[in-house]
Amino acid sequence: MENNRESFKSKFGVIAAAAGSAIGLGNIYRFPCVVGENGGSAFFIIYLIIVLFLGLPLIVSEFVIGRRAQKSPVGAFKKLAPDKKGWSLIGYIGVIGAFLILSFYTTVAAWTLDSVYRALTNAYDGKDLATIQTDFNGLLNNTWRTIIFEAIFMFITAYIIIRGIEKGIEKYSKILMPVLFVILIVLCVKSVTLPGAGDGLSFFLKPDFSKITGRVIVQALGQAFFSLSIGMGVLITYGSYIAKNDNLASSSLMVALFDTLIATLAGIIIFPAAFSFGIKPEAGASLAFTTLPMIFQQMNGGYFFCLIFFILLAIAALTSSISLLEAPVAYFKDELKMSRKKATIITAVLVFGLCIISGLSLQDDSPLKLFGMSIFNALDAFTANILMTVGGLLTVIFLGWKVRKSDFNDEFTNGGSVNMKLKNIFYFIIKFIAPLAIATILVSQLLK
Ligand code: TRP
Questions:
Q1: For ligand 1, atom 10: residue with the closest CA
Q2: Residue 22 near ligand 1, beta carbon < 6 Å
Q3: Cα separation, 372 vs 25, whole angstroms
Q4: Rounded distance, CA 209 to CA 225, Å?
Q5: Which residue's CA is the closest to the ligand 1 atom numbered 11?
Q6: Which atom, in ligand 1's list, is nearest to the CA of 225?
Q7: Which long-range CB contacts under 8 A does 81-86 form with residues at least 24 apart?
Q8: Which 3 state secondary structure label does DSSP give 374?
Q9: How do residues 327-363 score in pLDDT, each as one tens digit?
Q10: Cα of 414 from ligand 1 centre, angstroms
């Protein structure tokens, strides 16, 4: 096996990069949205079960495939199953999926930048909830303001990819993400001590099994895959950079743990505060973008905390969007032999075009609809609930049924030196449980 491939220098490097991809707007913006729309605690329990029994094995699977093949997705599938070229389809799903995700992700990132701007100019100061909500709605309906922030975010993402300086960003985020974590803890304390916070806390954490429905399970699976960056081959690429003596199971566990911890903190912050201020849990995007500024307003040093928080959230979004943009760029570069710069510019321009449409589709009375939803919501639902699920399903089938078991064992245990006991449990889940569970959820959704 060739060993000249660039690799992460330390265990922390792997975890930081994969966690950088995983932790992003999915945790702070999307997680509260889907929890709120799906009844709260029931959703959260299913979510945790899915992260543990499907999410974690899928992270392991992608890492195993990537490190075994020493290639990014399309090439990895070709290499591990040379007689069956069709499997590289999973690689293509990733390329298309990453492209579509970026198109609405950039819109949410634009709202984050807008929040940075508002925080900086002290625009939240002294405003009541109604005004902050009206302002946020105003942003959704303000074509130019949205497009400009989308353009800034897309430009920064593309610039980093062209210059190949992701590693530099990761170095900073190793310092910055712990700061984000500390601010989240401070926010938690503030939020749960607000008047009436208890109702929000029980909405999020007090189990009510009667609310579990097929829809809740589908949404939880989609959110888990989205949040962990699974099913699009992004982690296969990262896996190909992991050092051979690194413990894949424990690295995967750390990524899943950090990601879930941040999402949980977001829930503990947003629901108590939302209930306290009278924001409905189904409020969608305004959960994160109006609840949080309201909390900051009531804190000592709120101006400062609010500004730092939104800057860090934008950086968290950036480390995710970089991992997403890299997928189509690597494909154009490797398979179509384009230069990195050309590949990035073409992809970024295409993403930006679709991103403008996704942003505009949220305006009041916008005709930009698909399947009865705004194009923004359609892109979100199609990628999280269908593409990523299909990608994840094919990934476990590939690893469980196409790759030799001895290859899996060898890669998972680093040639027999670690995790000998865990290997059978993971293999069983990857081969039988995960394909069955994901396929059942997928089919139930398509039959609806
Ligand atoms: N996981 C990221 C988030 O929660 C989004 C993301 C980054 C992603 N890379 C991905 C989602 C790859 C799916 C696939 O914000």
A1: 229
A2: yes
A3: 25
A4: 22
A5: 229
A6: 13
A7: 81/398, 81/402, 81/403, 84/402
A8: strand
A9: 888 888 877 889 999 999 999 999 999 999 999 999 9
A10: 27
